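Example record for the data management plan.
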Amino acid sequence: MNDHRSSRRGFVAALLVGLTLSLSSHAGAASAPAGFTPLFNGKDLTGWRGGDTYDHRKLLGLSPEDRKKQIDTWTKSMLEVDSKTGKPHWYGENDELVNDGHGAYATTEKDYGDFELLVDYKTVPTADSGIYLRGVPQVQIWDHTQADPQNLGRAKGSGGLWNNSPGAPGKDPLVMADKPFGQWNKFRVLMVGSRVSVWLNGKLVVDHAILENYYDRKTPVPARGPIQLQTHGGEIRWRNVAIREIPASEANAILARHGANGFVSKFDGKSFKGWAGPIDNYEVKDGAILCKEHKGGTIYVNEELTDFAARLEIKLPPGGNNGLAIRYPGTGDTAYVGMCELQVLDDDADMYKKLDVRQYHGSAYGMVPAHRGYQRPVGEWNFEEVYVTGSKITVELNGTPILNADLSTVKEFMANSAHPGKDRTSGFFGFAGHNDPVAFRKIQLKPLK
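Corresponding structural encoding:
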């Protein structure tokens, strides 16, 4: 991978040197607020490559040779010189990154996970542009004064997640916040998991909405991907482009702040007060509940629930295995006699490479598989949220939806082992320990009826 990146940078550098017009003679060093890293150095395209509306997972799935060929093609398009202006489609000028409305998209060479992005832009009438997050379209930029015979929503202004489904949260901006043409607009974009918040000129226009995967709406957006500045037919200028990568602890705090109403703590951080089951097989350590090594069994909050939501943080040791007991009756193997066991597992451990897909983290064990690839590294705390409504269960891990299942429709079971409890309408919430010191903390429940 390093060889591929080096060759790509070399290709871009050769093109830049070969241009008859210097990208910029402006010399000031790029600056950014404390904690942020400039993405544009104020003078040239160092750190950027060409890109397009192209599934980033598909790009990463190409062979190194084919991937390089595709990126080189985009980058060549990005730097082509316009015959009328004598300038490339993208160039640096007076601390501004300028695009003439043509060429491939400016795309960061680096991929990002959770981040805070700052960017100013100034565009022209009838322009249509946007910012792709992890390679997924997009935070919309357009002319809100332009006629809209197709009823696309122009009059609502910029900043919405325009490629979300009609009516979905974030599709349209909450308020119209665009400045008149000729003035600079300021974006602040916060992305944690699939959750996106957008401020335009200081006004909140998208509030913690899920960015849908334009390329496959049944699959969440990638956990990592590039930032892309879209070009779409009209000149647009960008400046003060900077990013801050968000650590796990801050990301979890951001997720915990949203939708917290109604959740009640069920663990005091010191004892098993309010819990039942084989609690002697567990311990409280550093404010968390852990299953003791070589011990197990299901412990649970001693409060029977019907429909409910659960929030908690989970930390996995290498190879860790446990589970969330959903509507557990109080005795027996919760994976079968409860509504389900939501798997808690170190998906990346070598020992689990050949599991059934219905055994990985977040899955309704043995029944419905969850999307993979959204866990934090082993040893970091994960934020998980579960909603149980009737026969339906949803799981969101670190801000990304990984399971949306209706267990009443399940007809096929792993190893043909029936799950007689899957249609239970009430029971307990707890942990189905499997000998490993998986840690749980900040455990909250919210009855839904």
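Summary line stored alongside the record: The first helix runs from residue 2 to 18.
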